[in-house]
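Because showing beats explaining, we let one protein speak, sequence and backbone structure tokens together, and leave readers to judge.
___
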Amino acid sequence: MNVKKITATALLLAVALTIFVAEAQLPPPVPLPGVKLGLANVVTLAALSLLGRREALATLLGRIILGSIFAGQAVSFIYSLCGGLLCYIVMAALVGPLGERLWVVSVFGAVTHNLGQIAAAAALAHSAAVIAYLPVLVMSGVLTGAFTGLCAQIIVKRLKRRKEQ
């Protein structure tokens, strides 16, 4: 990794962490547990599209680790890690074939993030009963994933256009 990519990755991590902490202070968009916008994923998608897989993974893992420390919730670390890694794997696999359609990549990523969180909850609770909540999370994942993906798509397009100038 060259100095330029390291610097860009560190900058994106700082932005993602700031967004994560700010979003944690906002009331949930709907009164359902576990449903949030996931705005920090805009940065992960941008890193994936602009910098590459390794830098996006570093941004994601840094945000999960530092975000859990700043939020002070060890259990959220497990949920975030399980959901975040599954989300990353799917997005990294789809970002190439789907090209500039980051909103589609984000929808698949958000849904798999929710699957990872449900799997972690089932393992921690020693119960499969939490799977009943999956339809709610999948629906919210589609909506929030489309929104964050569109945001990332607009940002990436503008940054690429600016770079060409």
Observations:
- Residues 3-164 form a domain with the Arp2/3 complex 21 kDa subunit ARPC3 fold (CATH 1.10.1760.20).
- The radius of gyration is 15 Å.
- The chain has a mean pLDDT of 91.
- The longest helix spans residues 134-164.
